């Protein structure tokens, strides 16, 4: 057996640890079975084997995408005496392909947002106005009429309609926010005050307790409107993660040139295997959701040269942390 340096690197072994040994001596049974099956196919068919793409883990546990070709070497009588195998690591190529596909998809999203944003928002505003008008008419009705309306739950129906209109409006906003370029208007704001104002503007279920532990003097230099959107999205997600109630806690700290604000909940948590995907546009764990809320958060935070991270344990809760440079942006 002859091997090159790339082969050694993939398996994390030196040549003297590989030469004279079988695959079963140097790697896991599953991986050895995988390569041996290819060899057996070449021996049996006496034809070249080609596998355009396969995902395997190297010695460090990193996933790599490989393209493999194995060909038989024959003697004068046509018998297979050796097998030569060439495996190319195409991981970087695949990443570039996926990045290109994402860019094309996001370009299409931007075009869609530009086309439908205005056309959707106008009728949504009309619907909201009609709901408001209906509620005002109800208030001016006679006692007998009000009793009938209450009996049939029309007030509750109006409230539910308003909530759904708000939800549709948020989808349009997220879509447009993700598609449009970010322009910053920086000002220094008090974090505690901003979070308090956001909480007052939201409908917080009675079974959820919100604790703002941010110190009064903590300030960050940000675009107030954009950072408000970020915190609204994160707090809304926290509320939705606790259908049976729980706690939301705001904290802030300063560390190594960053001013960080965290939003923690005691909700259902997020599975470890999908944590690295949740900021990806169109990715969502919700039955109702378009997957743009967290992508918008990431875009807005990074526009401030900041960063957003997430920690979570299933059944225990989730913590999002937004970090903004202490220096002026």
Task: Write out the CATH superfamily name of the largest domain.
Answer: Histidine kinase-like ATPase, C-terminal domain
Mean pLDDT: 86
In angstroms, what separates the terminal alpha carbons? Answer: 58 Å
Compressed to H and E, one letter per element, the order equals HHHEEEHHHEHEEHEEHEE
Report the total helices: 9
Strand content: 15-25%
| CATH architecture label name of the largest domain | 2-Layer Sandwich
What would you call the structural class? alpha+beta
Number of domains: 3
What is the CATH C level class of the largest domain, in words?
Answer: Alpha Beta
Low-confidence segments: none
**Total strands:** 10
Major sheet description: 5 strands, mixed
Helix content: 40-55%
Summarize the structure in short.
With 329 residues, the protein is an alpha+beta fold. The chain has helices at 5-11, 23-26, 29-45, 91-139, 143-151, 154-179, 191-201, 224-240, 293-303, and strands spanning 49-57, 63-74, 80-89, 186-190, 208-212, 219-223, 246-255, 258-265, 307-313, 317-325. It folds into three domains: 5-89, Beta-Lactamase; 99-179; 186-325, Histidine kinase-like ATPase, C-terminal domain (Heat Shock Protein 90).
Write the layout of secondary structure elements.
Layout: H1 5-11, H2 23-26, H3 29-45, E1 49-57, E2 63-74, E3 80-89, H4 91-139, H5 143-151, H6 154-179, E4 186-190, H7 191-201, E5 208-212, E6 219-223, H8 224-240, E7 246-255, E8 258-265, H9 293-303, E9 307-313, E10 317-325
Parallel strand pairs: 5-7
Antiparallel strand pairs: 1-2, 2-3, 4-6, 7-8, 8-10, 9-10
């Amino acid at each position: 057996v002859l091997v090159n340096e790339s082969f050694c690197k993939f398996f994390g072994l030196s040549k003297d640890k590989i030469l004279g040994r079988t695959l079963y001596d140097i790697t896991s049974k599953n991986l050895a079975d995988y390569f041996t099956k290819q060899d057996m196919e070449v021996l049996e068919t006496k034809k070249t084997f080609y596998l355009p793409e396969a995902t395997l883990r190297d010695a460090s546990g990193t996933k790599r995408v490989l393209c493999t070709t194995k060909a038989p070497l024959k003697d004068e009588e046509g018998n297979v005496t050796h097998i030569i195998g060439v495996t190319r690591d195409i991981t970087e190529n695949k990443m570039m392909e996926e990045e290109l596909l994402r860019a094309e998809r996001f370009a299409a999203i931007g075009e869609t947002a530009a086309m439908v944003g205005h056309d959707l928002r106008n009728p949504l505003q009309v619907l909201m106005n009609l709901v408001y008008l209906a509620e005002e008419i109800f208030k001016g009705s006679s006692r007998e009429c009000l009793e009938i309306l209450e009996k049939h739950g029309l007030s509750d129906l109006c409230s539910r309609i308003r909530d759904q209109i708000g939800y549709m409006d948020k989808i349009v906003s997220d879509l447009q926010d993700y598609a449009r370029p970010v322009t910053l208007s920086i000002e220094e704001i008090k974090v505690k005050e901003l979070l308090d104002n956001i909480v007052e503007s939201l409908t917080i279920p009675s079974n959820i307790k919100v604790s703002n532990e941010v110190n009064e003097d903590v300030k960050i230099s940000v675009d107030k409107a954009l950072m408000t959107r970020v915190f609204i999205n994160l707090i809304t997600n926290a509320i939705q993660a606790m259908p049976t109630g729980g706690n939301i806690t705001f904290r802030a700290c300063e560390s190594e040139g960053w001013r960080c604000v965290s939003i923690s909940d005691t909700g259902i948590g997020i599975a470890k295997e999908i944590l690295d995907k949740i900021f990806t546009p169109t990715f969502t764990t919700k039955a109702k959701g378009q997957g743009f809320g967290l992508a918008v958060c990431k875009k807005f935070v990074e526009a401030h040269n900041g960063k957003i991270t997430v920690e979570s344990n299933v059944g225990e809760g989730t913590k999002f942390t937004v970090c903004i440079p202490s220096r002026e942006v």
